[in-house]
Amino acid sequence: MKYNNKIKTSYDFNDHVSGEENVYECWSFSFKDLDKINECENVVCISSFKNLSQEGNSILRNYITIGFYENFDLFKNENFNGFHPTDFFVIPINPEGEYKIQVITDIRNKHQFKVQ
User: Fold this and answer.
1) What's this model's pTM, rounded to 2 decimal places?
2) Which of 29, 66, 68, 112 is the most exposed place for a label (fewest CB within 10 A)?
């Protein structure tokens, strides 16, 4: 993957997303940086937005979509059904086998997504 025309590797992971059984290291970006990413293939992408808890003392992450994309441009054209993402997460995945389905299912089992 390239961000601002610089290659990103797993050493550059800056966040994580937890599933019901596992925690996945990933890159996270502000949604305004979406067009700075290129040459990105075979990834699970998650979109989200944040709001304050009812108590107002913490920030809650609300998940919108999750999916596997052979080409990141497909994620850029995603329909978020009226939701406005503020952040997104990119998890590189080996496209062979069932692992991508296991990752998506694990994360989906832990979190409620606005778009099914």
Assistant:
1) 0.89
2) 112
